[in-house]
Specification:
Length: 125
Amino acid sequence: MTAELEALRAENEALRAKLAAVRRIPELPAEHKGVPIEWRRWEPAPFILCERAGDLNGCPQCDHPGPSLLTFGLAGPGKPLIRFNAHRCPSCEETCVYERRYDKYRIGAELVEIAYWAPKATAQP
Ligand SMILES: [Zn+2]
């Protein structure tokens, strides 16, 4: 019985060490400048067909053919609107988080990067 217990303890310790070494996907920011962000689920990004711009669907870091993963972040003030978006490569996990800024002189949003994780980045504990 004691030997069995010792074996289980050793196995438990080995598994804990393995788990500690596994990389964790970084969490998306929970807030920006004090405003909480509610993130939607990650979804495959829409496939972009644009001959002039070349292939926009693959990952420039690791050559994953895509699609990348996309999510939107909703935030106030007032009624929460889509004010953030994030892209992640499903292979190397390079991740960019953008604030979407709007002004009346522009069609669409200006994307301002607010967070970035390099390929295969590990989360800070
Ligand atoms: Zn990649």
